[in-house]
């Protein structure tokens, strides 16, 4: 499979090159040259397949022969080492729980897949390492740290804003050691992000083979399609149209769902539910794409003013807004509405949703009014424990600490404090 740059000013590359580079030389996102539908028989018999078999069928065309079949199957098995339950929270409304992985966020899937692909591409490459550089406001860093721990030939450097991530998140970033290094930046998330961007453009760092591990990287983004297939498998026997709602920030998750639909997955409609960072809902209203600086909310993993993957979605709809609106809606919700939804969900059936999942639920409820025969699925993207400062007082509950979290709580933080880009460069050198 070849990948082209969405800025159309860079050479086409292989899967391997796209994974290693992250972004094209013209700063465009990579996009697969073709997306082929899977055989009807695959969907007809999906209930007989394991999650690993489904994932292999789904991803194979995007990897081609660049990773041998047996190795790809092994990578998938290591990626999908946890469950993806579909839980009914009220009649006809399901939560697709993506938080049962090692860091309890859906980003575990992409981080584990990408790390193992890079590890494979580096297997014979003893002297020149790849350096994954990532800025995090919380969840990405933990998933990347855990996913890349011990991967051959890859060094991971995570920049996070000092004092601006939760205690659990900080421990997930700073306690693993080995090939994972944490830089504690005296600043806010945007300062971390700016330094990372600067490093990618810095010619004097070319030899460090820097790559990114957020959803602009195809190896982090594409495997996120897997769990849309898993949800279909779980709900297929009800024989009803499906509506998916993704709580959206950088729009990587929903973009992976749309790829699954392009491959033949029967999905009636997608909803991208956002918090007050509403660039996409406004675009669907008035056709003007007008990004704004991000606003802080209680669903902070979605505090994104200019969603990086939206351009990939537009590509899939050939920038045809009317066609796009037939398959896709996007709604914005305030923190007050999110809090109220968490209470509604809890009071109805005792289900504990964290703020991101609750935004997904709200988007789903709104869209389902247009689909009376459909059943709805919202993605629950993180475990409530990761947002306990909001969840516990809102629902008046005390959350037990899961074993994954327990294991990092006892460990000591190791980080290097930096303030300027020069200090980052010195650290890299
Ligand atoms: C990253 C994240 C999101 C947003 O996902 P995108 O793919 O960027 O739209 C939503 N919820 C949680 C908990 C996240 O960590």
From TrEMBL:
Its EC number is 4.2.3.1. GO terms for molecular function: pyridoxal phosphate binding; threonine synthase activity. Belongs to the threonine synthase family. It comes from Flavobacterium gawalongense. Pathway: Amino-acid biosynthesis; L-threonine biosynthesis; L-threonine from L-aspartate: step 5/5. Signal peptide: none annotated. PANTHER family: THREONINE SYNTHASE FAMILY MEMBER (PTHR42690), THREONINE SYNTHASE-LIKE 2 (PTHR42690:SF1). One of its GO terms (biological process) is threonine biosynthetic process. Keywords: Amino-acid biosynthesis, Lyase, Pyridoxal phosphate, Threonine biosynthesis. Residues 93-368 form the Tryptophan synthase beta chain-like PALP domain. This is Threonine synthase.
């Amino acid at each position: 499979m070849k990948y082209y740059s969405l800025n159309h000013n860079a050479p086409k590359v292989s899967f391997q090159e796209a994974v290693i580079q992250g972004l094209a030389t013209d700063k465009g996102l990579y996009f697969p040259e073709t997306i082929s539908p899977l055989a009807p028989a695959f969907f007809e018999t999906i209930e007989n397949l394991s999650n690993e078999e489904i994932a292999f069928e789904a991803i194979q065309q995007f990897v081609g022969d660049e990773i041998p079949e047996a190795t790809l199957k092994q990578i998938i098995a290591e990626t999908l080492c946890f469950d993806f339950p579909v839980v009914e929270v009220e009649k006809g409304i399901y939560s697709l729980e993506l938080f049962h992985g090692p860091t309890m966020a859906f980003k575990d899937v992409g981080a584990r897949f990408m790390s193992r692909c890079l590890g494979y591409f580096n297997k014979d490459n003893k002297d020149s390492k790849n350096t994954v550089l990532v800025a995090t406001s919380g969840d990405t860093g933990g998933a990347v740290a855990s996913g890349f721990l011990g991967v051959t030939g890859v060094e991971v450097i995570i920049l996070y804003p000092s004092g601006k991530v939760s205690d659990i998140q900080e421990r997930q970033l700073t306690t693993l050691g080995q090939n994972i290094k944490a830089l504690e930046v005296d600043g806010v998330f945007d300062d971390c992000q700016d330094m990372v961007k600067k490093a990618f453009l810095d010619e004097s760092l070319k030899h460090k083979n820097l790559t990114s591990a957020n959803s602009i990287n195809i190896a982090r983004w594409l495997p996120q399609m897997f769990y849309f297939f898993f949800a279909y498998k779980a709900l297929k026997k009800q024989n009803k149209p499906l509506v998916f709602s993704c709580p959206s920030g950088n729009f990587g998750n929903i973009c992976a769902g749309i790829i699954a639909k392009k491959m033949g997955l029967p999905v009636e409609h997608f909803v991208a539910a956002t918090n007050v960072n509403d660039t996409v809902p406004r675009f669907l209203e008035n056709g003007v794409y007008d990004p704004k600086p991000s606003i802080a909310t209680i669903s902070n993993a979605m505090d994104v003013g200019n969603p990086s993957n939206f351009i990939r979605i537009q590509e899939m709809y050939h920038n045809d807004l009317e066609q796009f609106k037939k398959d896709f809606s996007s709604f914005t919700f305030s923190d007050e509405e999110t809090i109220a939804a968490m209470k509604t969900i809890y009071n109805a059936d005792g289900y504990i949703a964290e703020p991101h999942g609750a935004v997904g639920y709200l988007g789903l409820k709104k869209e389902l009014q247009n689909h009376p025969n459909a059943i709805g699925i919202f993605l629950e993207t993180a475990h409530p424990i990761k947002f306990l400062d909001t969840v516990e007082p809102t629902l008046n509950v005390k959350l037990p600490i899961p074993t994954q979290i327990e294991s990092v709580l006892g460990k000591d933080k190791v980080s290097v404090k930096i303030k300027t880009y020069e200090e980052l460069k010195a650290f890299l050198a």
